[in-house]
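Researcher: We plan to redesign the surface later, but first we want a full-length starting point. Tokens attached.
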């Protein structure tokens, strides 16, 4: 039986799936199986996947039911001690599995582990700074307010799902946040402070559908706060506040910048949690909205893309310098 089961849900992702699978097959840790769960694709995904000759790769087909059901299908058929998730347009650093397997092997009381995440564009080029999370240990209370865990960075002990449950099939977006809350209630999480996963930022991704995301966030918050102790009920307004800040940013990230929606979501965030108006994120959002109103959406996108690429290059140079100094010190 493999040590790790890697679950790759896919739906019409043939443009990126080969690169995603290659990043798995090139891992320095090799004791794994790959479960490609095709969620009713109508492109060439299944035909391509079935041509893979590596015996560690299995293709599972199901009617289109959404990513939550696809991941659950993978979990239920997984044979590994550990389960890792990778969406069909994201990729991994070559040592991702090795580092996380070692972490869980040496920390038996930790139920799951994640890492920092790099951002890449459609051409797999780095954009912006990595998503640096500090979520570690007992983070259930932190997750009640906002999600700090990227699905592509997570590895979970398969036994944890029998306690915490699977992905909620009724939630169509941000579905991982709801599961993380349940996992964190039962198990502490580990953190590897290195960007081991790469999340692809695409203008057409499901997360850019603000109405879908809004409905899902409402589902998650209402479900979560219906099942927790009364002394946490006052946190619900904060959770909604951060959810609407998140939605406001999403409204500005689409191909068509919806300024009116961003302003409306920002106002709703303040109404739910008035103290958010003093947060850096709230103030940055106001600056972004103002810039778009002055220079227009296209120039704002160009400016942001330039800044993100510059930050990506600076981050790469910094990593090279750190590695060089480490090598010099070891000599």
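Model: Full-length starting sequence:
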């Amino acid at each position: 039986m493999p040590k790790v089961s890697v679950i790759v849900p896919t739906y019409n992702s043939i443009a990126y799936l080969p690169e995603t699978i290659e990043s798995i097959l090139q891992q320095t840790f090799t004791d794994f199986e790959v479960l490609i769960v095709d969620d009713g694709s109508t492109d060439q995904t299944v035909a391509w996947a079935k041509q893979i000759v590596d015996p560690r790769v299995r293709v599972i087909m199901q009617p289109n039911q959404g990513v939550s059901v696809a991941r659950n299908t993978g979990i239920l058929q997984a044979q590994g001690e550990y389960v890792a998730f990778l969406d069909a347009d994201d990729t991994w650093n070559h040592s991702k599995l090795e580092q996380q397997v070692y972490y869980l092997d040496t920390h038996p009381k930790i139920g799951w582990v994640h890492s920092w995440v790099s951002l890449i564009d459609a051409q797999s080029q780095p954009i912006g700074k990595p998503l640096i999370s500090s979520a570690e240990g007992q983070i259930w209370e932190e997750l009640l307010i906002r999600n700090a865990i990227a699905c592509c960075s997570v590895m979970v002990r398969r036994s944890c799902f029998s306690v915490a449950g699977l992905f909620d099939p009724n939630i169509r977006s941000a579905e991982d946040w709801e599961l993380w809350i349940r996992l964190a209630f039962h198990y502490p999480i580990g953190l590897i402070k290195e960007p081991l996963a790469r999340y692809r930022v695409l203008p057409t991704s499901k997360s850019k559908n603000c109405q879908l995301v809004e409905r899902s966030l409402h589902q998650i918050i209402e479900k979560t706060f219906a099942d927790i102790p009364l002394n946490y009920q006052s946190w619900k307004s904060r959770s909604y506040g951060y959810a609407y800040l998140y939605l406001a940013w999403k409204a500005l990230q689409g191909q068509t910048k919806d300024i009116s929606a961003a302003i409306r979501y920002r106002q709703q965030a303040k109404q739910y949690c008035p103290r958010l108006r003093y947060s850096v994120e709230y103030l940055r959002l106001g600056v972004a909205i103002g810039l778009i109103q002055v220079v227009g959406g296209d120039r704002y996108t160009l400016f942001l893309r330039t800044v993100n690429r510059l930050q990506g290059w600076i981050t790469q140079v910094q990593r090279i310098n750190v590695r060089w100094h480490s090598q010099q010190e070891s000599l």
